């Protein structure tokens, strides 16, 4: 029996769809056991390849779907949903869109905080943080200034100023692995 593209493309697409479907449902319901998340992310490439090979091996039938309104409507709707899902039309609202936004929200909160507040978080004095910034040529007029204000007055990005502060917590703020202050 001769092996053809058609003989393995469809089983590959079905198998990859099974993996993607099951792992996708588990992720939807926040059941992240074992290797569910990496399997879903990485093995989705199998699904993509399987569907591509399936479409190529069945190109005459595939092209036929563009000859009727139902096929065009379904494929068009799928393309439209894909495009809409890639647009940032929903912004970065309060509800967030997952784990990535937690870190982003924390960074934005720190950027809106004063040097005094950031010092409390890092367990150092505001003077130590101001000195650290001044070593990098960033002037801090007052420790009650926010990171955003300091960045704006120095012609820097907020993330650059915050990164300078977070890069090395400084003396007196060294923490052990559990986050407790060593000086008890």
Brief summary:
This protein has 184 residues and is an all-alpha fold. It has nine helices and no strands.
Question: Explain this structure to me?
Answer:
64% of the residues lie in helices and 0% in strands. By secondary structure, it is an all-alpha fold. It folds into 2 domains: 5-69; 100-166, no CATH class. The model is unreliable at 94-98 and 168-184 (pLDDT under 50).
Provide key terms for this protein.
disordered C terminus; single chain; 2 domains; 64% helix; elongated; 9 helices; mainly alpha; 184 residues
Q: In this structure, how is the largest beta sheet organized?
A: none
**Mean pLDDT score:** 83
- The outline comes out as elongated
Number of domains: 2
The number of helical segments is 9
Radius of gyration: 26 Å
Helix proportion:
55-70%
Question: How does the helix and strand content classify structurally?
Answer: mainly alpha
Q: In what range is the share of β-strand residues?
A: under 5%
What are the low-pLDDT stretches, counting only 5+ consecutive residues below 50?
A: 94-98, 168-184
N- to C-terminal distance: 76 Å
H/E topology pattern = HHHHHHHHH
Number of strands: 0
Protein name: DUF4405 domain-containing protein
Keywords: Membrane, Transmembrane, Transmembrane helix
Topology:
Elements: H1 5-28, H2 36-57, H3 59-64, H4 69-86, H5 99-111, H6 115-122, H7 126-135, H8 147-154, H9 158-166
Helix pairs in contact: 1-2, 6-7, 8-9
Region (Disordered): 158-184
Protein name: DUF4405 domain-containing protein
Keywords: Membrane, Transmembrane, Transmembrane helix
